[in-house]
Design a protein that fits this description.
Blueprint lengths: L3 E6 L3 E10 L4 H9 L4 E12 L1 H12 L3 E3 L3 H14 L1
Parallel strand pairs: 2-3, 3-4
Antiparallel strand pairs: 1-2
Helix pairs in contact: 2-3
Length: 88
């Protein structure tokens, strides 16, 4: 399954729902989605099945700049923490 991106807004926050595999080649498209919105942003990762290391680093950066991560599965969250620890 490839990446599927859906966007929804409640007027205050934009929720970008991601489904499938997120790979580094999808990051430019995802950054464009994020940059096109000036309201608060949340990424819903509930239906994400697989990521690569560049995506994990990207998700860490998203959190650092205030983008919320919703429904982030345990293996991705643990990988994100390991990446943060290795950078320090």
């Amino acid at each position: 399954m490839t990446l599927k991106i859906e966007q929804d807004s409640d007027g205050q926050k934009t929720i970008i729902r991601l489904s499938g595999r997120i790979q580094s080649e999808h990051l430019d498209q995802l950054k464009t989605q994020i940059d096109s919105d000036q309201s608060g942003i949340a990424l819903d990762l509930d239906a994400v099945t697989l990521v690569d290391v560049e995506v994990v680093r990207f998700l860490n950066t998203c959190e650092e700049i205030g983008i919320e991560l919703h429904h982030c599965c345990r293996y991705i969250r643990e990988w994100m923490m390991r990446e943060k620890d290795s950078e320090e």
